[in-house]
Please model this.
Amino acid sequence: MPIIEIHPHQAFVPKNVKVLILGSFPGKDHSDVQGKDEWFYASKRNQFWKIMRGVYNLPLLTTQEKKDCFEEKGIAVTDVFLKIKRKENNNLDANLEMIEDNSKAIQSILNLPNLQSIFFTSQFVEKQFRKLFPSIKMGESLPSPSPRYARMSLQEKIDHYKKKLPK
Model:
């Protein structure tokens, strides 16, 4: 019987938010880094922080460095699901069965006056967001930071994110 997983992180919402990056849910292997500065996108295989390092030319190795960068750039980060079950023992978004959405946290970010953009880490996330917030037209999917998304190289992903995210 699948275990109900609860999201380990609260939404990160710095002052003067300009951008929301919205993901799905931490990978099942996020626990492989617990005690080693685990935060959003902590799975060893996920390319998110490699992309951010390329975009901002910063080490972004510790949670504090990541939070400081997002604070300075006005980037909020959270996930669309708060509680899930996995249909199978893998990290595919399509494998996630939502038990509880994260709409309260997302709505509080959407209500912020300086929010200019929403970026989804996959088309799956965008689809889930549109179900929860059908009246919100803003937002676009970025190339997935999943290593399974191999249509683009890491450098191409960095270049794409660099064009979209705050300087």
